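I hope you will forgive my troubling you with a question about protein structure. You will find the record immediately after this paragraph.
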Amino acid sequence: MSEQVPPANNYSYNAYASNQAPAAAPPVPVRPKQVDLGFWLLIAAAALSVLSIPLSIAWMNSSAYQDSVGLTGMAPDEADMVIAFATMTTIFFAVMSLAIALLVALFIRKGHNWARIVATVFAALGLINLTGLTAGGLMAVSTGLGVLLPVLAVVLLWMKPSTEYFNAAKAHRQYRKFNPGA
């Protein structure tokens, strides 16, 4: 009978096996006040968008809006159909943007960097809405706050304490992922 002979070297064929102790767990990150304030500014912007829906609908039914988009030359039935379509589109996109904004804000609070990047992109795209300031009155105030709040939130979210929090949160999540029993 043949006898099994151990290998002549001490190399391990398991790349993950080692005699080293696992690294110490990074501490649970403490959320800085900049992240909390940024979160609440994003929530306030989302609430403002909900409150601005009736304002937008009222503005779309005004003669000033109808003059600005050229509905005055249309037949009344056609103008009503355009306004109804614009109203439904406004409501749909408001609900979708509200859901996305709340989701992004919650993940920002948990320390996910991708959510901070998404908020930054949305805040930059929101600058396009500054054209709504020409509407005047309450619509201009709503538009101005709707642009200003996310921009302020993003500025806070990119400050040094916030960046350190996002990095620490990532390290903590990765440690938990690769060390489930620790």
Q: What stands out?
A: The first helix runs from residue 33 to 60. The helical segments are 33-60, 63-68, 76-109, 113-126, 137-157, 160-178. The mean pLDDT is 84.
